[in-house]
Amino acid sequence: MPDSVPSTEDEVLERLEDEIAFLAENLAVACGEIDELAYELDDHLAENDLERVESAVNQLEGLLDEEVAGDLVSLARLCAVRDGHPADEDRNDPPVPTLTADELPPFVPDQDQEDEDEARIDNLRERMGTVADHLRSLFSFTSDRFGSARTAAEHGYVGRSLSELRLARKAAAEVPPGYKLWMRCLNDLYLVSPSSLGAYGHMLMDFEAFLQAERPGRASG
Q1: Which pLDDT score is estimated for 114?
Q2: pTM score, two decimals?
Q3: Domain residue spans in the chain?
Q4: Contact, 105 vs 124, CB < 8 A?
């Protein structure tokens, strides 16, 4: 058989490498999308951009679907075939960040004095900032754990890869409740000091003013 004609073994190895490269690329794309969401979320929260925060929240869990899980398992098994089957090591999983309303800084009572009003606004900002930091932590945790799942799969660790994916999904599942808590804090601050929300607060005030201006015309019609 001429050297230019690949053997059956060579063909199998070539197909194996092609499939590994294909799966690795799929997971690299998913990993990049999660990293980008986590990076962009920081700005969205800082700008109190409700719509973009909500969009990021909705996208996150969708990036950790069953197709991704299948790609991780397939990649880990194929890499194990190519490189040998490593033994999964015992490990302690890091805790997923959690936050409840009871763990927020306590409310400052509403007062009539101007100084007390400022203290209440600062308090509401602190509460909102605490939840924003929690959301950042969840996105960062999810990104880190999914990156670890991908790395484990590339080294043939099926069990470790799935364990890391479970942690990523667990953190992603905490994001919607965290987002709802952030929305509550945003609303609390808006009711007291809309201007504290920056451009977004002014947009809401303009919209409310528009609706109020429209009501008399509708009533008379």
Answers
A1: 57
A2: 0.84
A3: 8-89+104-216
A4: no
Single-letter amino acid code for the residue at 180: K
Helices assigned H by DSSP within the chain: 8-46, 50-62, 66-83, 114-154, 158-192, 199-220
Assess contact for 131 and 185: CB atoms under 8 A: yes
b vs e for 47-58, b when ≥16 Cβ sit within 10 Å of the residue's Cβ? ebbbeebeebbe
The tokens for 63 are 């990036």
Q: What is the mean pLDDT of residues 103-116?
A: 75
d(CA 130, CA 212): 33
d(CA 199, CA 193): 13
Please give the average per-residue pLDDT across 83-109, as a whole number. 85
pLDDT digits (tens, 9 = 90+) for 141-170: 999 999 999 999 999 998 899 999 999 999
- Contact present, 135 and 180 (Cβ < 8 Å): no
Cα 33 from Cα 142, distance rounded (Å) = 12
Distances 208 to 1, 51, 200 between C-alpha atoms, Å: 81, 17, 12
CA 29, CA 50: separation in Å to the nearest integer? 26
